[in-house]
Amino acid sequence: MAAVSRDLLERLYAAPPDGFVAARSAAVAEARAAGDAAGAREIGKLRKPTVAAWLVNLLALRRPDLMAELVELSAALRAAQRELRGARLRELSARRRDLVATLVAQARALAEASYPDVPVGRLPLTEVEATLQAALSDVEIAEQVRSGRLVRAVSYAGFGEVPRPQLRLVT
Predict the structure, then answer these.
(1) CA angle 166, 169, 170 (to 5 degrees)
(2) Which residue of 19, 65, 81, 140 is most buried, as measured by CB atoms within 10 A?
(3) Is 40 within 8 Å of 5 (Cβ atoms)?
C-alpha cells in the first residue's frame, strides 16, 4: 500500500464511519485527477470501519502514548504468565483493568470532542473494550490496533500464549 499516503489513511480512519465512503470516493477522484491510477485503486480498496473500530482507530491515532502503554502491558502480562508469576500477574491484571477503563473513557471523550454530532450514548464501548482486551492477549491484534486502520472490532477467546509454557511439578 505504498501508493497511499499516511496522512490520507489517518484522515480517512479518524473520520466517523458515516462519512468514510464519501471521503474515500473524493480521495479516489483526486488521485485519478492527479494521474495516479495505482493510488486510486489502492484507495478504492480501503474498507469502511465499524463504529467500534473507528473508536479504536481514534485512540491509536490521537493517543499513541496510551496505546504504547497497552502494548507494553501486554508484553509484561505474557512474560508474567510464561514465568508463572502469580503475584506479578495479579498486579498486572489490576493495571490492565485500569488501563482498559481509561482507554474506553478516552475513546468516548475523543468521539464526543472531535465529532459533536456523534450520538455518544449509543457508542459500542463494550466492543471497544473487547478489542482492547484482545490486543492485550495477542501480539498480532495489538499491531492491528496500533496501526489506526482497524475495520472491525476484534475479540479474543484464548487462554494465553500458544505454545503454553511447559509446566513441571515441584515437590
Answers:
(1) 120
(2) 81
(3) no
pTM higher than the cut 0.90: no
Closest CA to 108 of 126, 96, 120: 120
Read off the amino acid at residue 125. Answer: L
| 75-103 tens-digit pLDDT | 999 889 888 888 998 999 999 999 999 99
Cα gap 94→113, rounded to integer Å = 28
Instruction: Measure the CA–CA gap between 101 and 67, rounded to whole angstroms.
Output: 13
Q: What type of residue sits at position 1? A: M
State the cell numbers at 167. 509446566
Q: How many residues does the chain have?
A: 171
2, pLDDT greater than 50: no
